[in-house]
Amino acid sequence: QTGKFTYDPGFLSTASCNSTITYIDGDKGELLYRGYPIEQLATQCDFLETCYLLLKGELPNAEQRTDFTKLVTNHTMVNEQMQFFLRGFRRDAHPMAVMTGLVGALSAFYHDSTDITNPQHREISAIRLIAKMPTLVAMAYKYGIGQPFIYPKNSLSYSANFMRMMFATPCEEYEPDDVLVRAIDRIFILHADHEQNASTSTVRLCGSSGTNPFAAIAAGVACLWGPAHGGANEAALNMLKDIQRQGGVEKIGEFIKQVKDKNSNVKLMGFGHRVYKNYDPRAKLMRETCHEVLQATGLHDDPLFKLAMALEKIALEDDYFVSRKLYPNVDFYSGIVQSALGIPVSLFTAIFALARTVGWIAQLNEMIGDPEYKIGRPRQLFVGSVARNVKPIGER
Ligand code: SDX
Asked: Which residues form the signal peptide (predicted)?
């Protein structure tokens, strides 16, 4: 029992680890980072304050916030050689293929922060990863559209810097709009950590072998790519576009019928969750952000947003979803928000990885920092063949 939280023994028997970082109550739809409700962090803090909280366990005071921001800002550039690694990809390579390669490649440049057992190495690799992910994601985007890379401009905030690296060109400056910068910053906060999800567990298991922090985070990027996990925001938006193409709101009934047909294997992307059996608190905040961004960009009549709200309303009243406790998750609205920000669908999961990097690092450091930790070694329940002898090939 810790504070107000009490766990049933059954839960503890399945828990993969103890952690003090993120608490989720799936039945109540509650999410806390280091005890702070996500609703308060998303509306009263910025992403770098949230990074500081996840890494160090406390929110920074004004001086700590300034120092941490300066530290991260001083590491936003990447080694010039990284662009040649990137140029080895086809222009149409999926950004997550590029990010999986680039993040792992970082370990080739920073020998002073690759020893995961060294607390100083962990500290500096954390700063480098948090600082460089926006630069790498923006480079992957620019490379895909054939535009030159835009260097970070350190007079800007973390999220404004990212938006500028994405949308400025050598011919035209990009003045990030405050509402849009706040929206992307909130997307980063909402995706920063989420307990022992598939990609975080991947990072923990990978890091437990003593590999370097960059390689462990690259493993998390690879796992997050899957459509059942971080790839769901891309899949959710493509699903809305498909319904739109087939006739929009009028066609929702037909689509829902397909979802209910077990043989169709069609899922309502952006709905359902392994833990939340109530509304994902991040989805509520994402829907609000969606509204604000669409107002700010003059897209309030965006048919996809109207379609998403109509689909959500129907699903929340339909017994198939209600009986299975299927509610919208963080990915249902995030795609619409990112589209309205001018971000292409193919980049959504790379942005999820950018945000989740701090959570992966915090979880990895929590494990490695525990003197009792050992290399992960999940076991199995063997249900295969009993011992038998090889027969000569003529008798097989
Ligand atoms: C993320 O773990 C995390 O914390 C992840 C994440 C994070 O921040 O790291 O929150 C990010 O990954 C969010 C989830 C994004 N994925 C999607 O939106 C993809 C669509 N969702 C489904 O693939 C699914 O809901 C999962 C994978 C998320 C959960 O699958 P489960 O564990 O099978 O869900 P369940 O046990 O609650 O399913 C109960 C029933 C099953 O049907 P029956 O066998 O009872 O007939 O509901 C069905 C499922 O088939 N079901 C769905 C559905 N999700 C579950 N049916 C239609 N549409 C869906 N989306």
From this structure: none
